[in-house]
Amino acid sequence: xxxINALNHRRSIRHFQSIPIPSGVMGRVLKQALKAPSSxxxxxxxxxxxxxxxxxxxxxxxxxxxxxxxxxxxxxxxLKLWHGATGKVLPDGDYNPNVxxxxxxxxxxxxxGMGLYETLGIxxxxxxxxxxxxxxxxxxxxxxxxxxVYVHDKLGRYSALDAGIFLQSLMLAAxxxxxxxxxxxxxxxxxxxxxxxFQIEADYKLLCGVSIGYPAEHPVNEFRPVRRDVExxxxxxxxxxxxxxx
Length: 246
Known about the structure:
This protein is 46% helix and 12% strand. The protein has helices at residues 3-9, 23-33, 52-73, 77-86, 103-120, 127-135, 156-176, 192-195, 230-233, 240-245, and strands at residues 45-51, 145-152, 180-184, 204-213.
């Protein structure tokens, strides 16, 4: 599939078939993604690829933590503090994915979330349904494989930049193989279930996860948030001529 077609077909998949990905297919996707450019060709990222029993064990543990965190969040403050400190509820990931979106960026995030819930038929006040949908993140939306992406902490934001370029390459390569993907910051909330199962170098920190598999026929996979126009992201030139003449 040509690049432009892959760009047009790529979307975040939130409902997968349970069909396993053949090892040859996954190997081709990763090999193509490694052609992504990076600063000084450092390629400062590592991947923990989980499928089969390892994938199930990680999902079970993440779901358990999510359920427990939800229960604790509804407790009175003293119990909340106690269970939060002792019940494996608090986030133990390397970075905090719960960033605060400022100004118009928050508005865009809000509109995207509301569009997704509308597609799923979830009312804004239906907190139980919203919790169930959030929990789907930790079920990897039914995908047979999940990739946890780690970046070298010593390179800071440039390590994340290189990983972002790699992720775009991976997602487009996946489309070319008939696969779908969903990149999920939520999968970086709890890091210990992954650290316990993979040998991860000390300087590499969990950035996000990517669920990958064959897309299922489901309305949620037709959701596409509105993209900006080119004019919206282009900065205007300063009016230096008028200043000079004054």
